[in-house]
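Our platform keeps sequence and structure together, in a single record for each protein. Such a record has a labelled line for the sequence and another for the backbone structure tokens. This encoding replaces a full spatial description with a residue-level series of whole-number codes. Below, we set out a record of this kind in full and without editing:
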Amino acid sequence: MSTSNDWKAQLAPEVYHVTREKGTEAPFSGAYWNHHEKGMYRCSNCGVALFASDAKFDSKTGWPSFTCPVESGTVRLVADESQGMHRTEVVCAACGAHLGHVFDDGPEDAGGKRYCINSLSLGFSGDEKAEK
């Protein structure tokens, strides 16, 4: 398991802040909020596949939004009581990186979930075979 110093050495400072210190990037600022290529969104820390592009939708929030992870067990959901509110944090199950939060205001026809994910928490592989 990597230590804080290991992650600091491996990650750009802004990626470290979001994924290891539970930061949030500004809306409409990330690389993937308006990204429409086919492929797979992966954890920016460990490379594990997290979300397929066919689960991505425009939530009009300024962050990449997905209806579901690519597979059950690729993300963990953690209660988040920070900042005076109750939210559910989404973390990479493989490495523990903070990804964002999940909300119950997603498209009803896709299960009603909105995985609101920071672009800095993601990498992208433009391989259409990666879609689920």
User: Anything to note?
Assistant: The longest strand covers residues 75-80. The two ends are 29 Å apart (CA to CA). DSSP finds two helices and nine strands in the chain. The helical segments are 4-10, 13-20.
